[in-house]
Records
---
Amino acid sequence: AQKVTQAQTEISVVEKEDVTLDCVYETRDTTYYLFWYKQPPSGELVFLIRRNSFDEQNEISGRYSWNFQKSTSSFNFTITASQVVDSAVYFCALTENNNDMRFGAGTRLTVKP
Amino acid sequence: GAVVSQHPSRVICKSGTSVKIECRSLDFQATTMFWYRQFPKQSLMLMATSNEGSKATYEQGVEKDKFLINHASLTLSTLTVTSAHPEDSSFYICSARVPTGYNNEQFFGPGTRLTVL
């Protein structure tokens, strides 16, 4: 069965600092999908990115970037120049081919002004 | 993108009553929907997988007689919490999987916050 580990329970940074959220996964499948979601206090999940196991290219979207490394089974998420609005809980998730989604424990990010 | 709605967004009920939560895919047909539960400051835990026209598959430890799931159409799945008790108070989130073309992505509803007094 797949497993996702987010070792950082809480992170606190000051605005404009860069912050990296770690995600390590376990799977026996060669085909799988990795996700990051943001959950603000309202509770609604906000989709950030999806990666399939055959695409190891890193991605940058504005202040967000993702580093996918199959060699270390990691899919880390970096926020550059953090802002107060980035404060939320961030979840990393994994689906194996056509199966349900399993979430990590989440990392609560607090960005202080 | 695909949109999933949930109704109600928030419900408060007395202990012993039953509560029905609806999950709808608004602009696509979903043969598979998922129900998750999230307790405060915890992660989302999968409760069950709902397939249209067949019985739901429940995760270990989830009581199927307490959490009734009905997926009667390709756009609607319902979760009924029967005889709710305070320990059932939680945030319930559904998701719907797009059958093809979206790389196995699931689209999540906005969630339903259940409070049992």
---
Amino acid sequence: NAGVTQTPKFQVLKTGQSMTLQCAQDMNHNSMYWYRQDPGMGLRLIYYSASEGTTDKGEVPNGYNVSRLNKREFSLRLESAAPSQTSVYFCASSGRDRVSGANVLTFGAGSRLTVL
Amino acid sequence: AQKVTQAQTEISVVEKEDVTLDCVYETRDTTYYLFWYKQPPSGELVFLIRRNSFDEQNEISGRYSWNFQKSTSSFNFTITASQVVDSAVYFCALSVPDSGSARQLTFGSGTQLTVLP
């Protein structure tokens, strides 16, 4: 009953370092997303993947790259981290909610990234 | 472009009080979906409700109720007899269908609800 799993939960980087946030879903959903959450700004879409093999930019893609490795996995990479990328990152996939049956986004638990 | 406004940044109430969280949205699409998500202190985002633009019926689920009014582009959320466990950040969100079948959500900035014992 995992849903959307993202790793790591916490990470501290120095400016210029690179890292990859991993995300996997076990709900057989086609679409997956990466959002970032900053205080007072809600969640903003970084990139999304409508289906395996496709990726598209969202509202705030600069400084990030993504890979849709297969239907289950969608990773987010920071090639050269900057302090402005300090945020909480959420991965999500869209499909039928297990409880309500409505077609909704199901989110991972979040990854808190600090760039010094 | 879509926009969601949650004008209330923070609300504090005393337990058992009723509280309404406001949400105003903007979109030019005639077909759209509205959502509410809850983010408790643990940080995860929990889906609460989805409404589509053709269904203006109000909905009640236990202590939660939602009032959708297209005339004012609002989708307000009321918690009746609030409890301490209702303390969380609540997000209103909007999505419109697109050709890629990807459901992108536009979020409001969230309302921090604190229920005091």
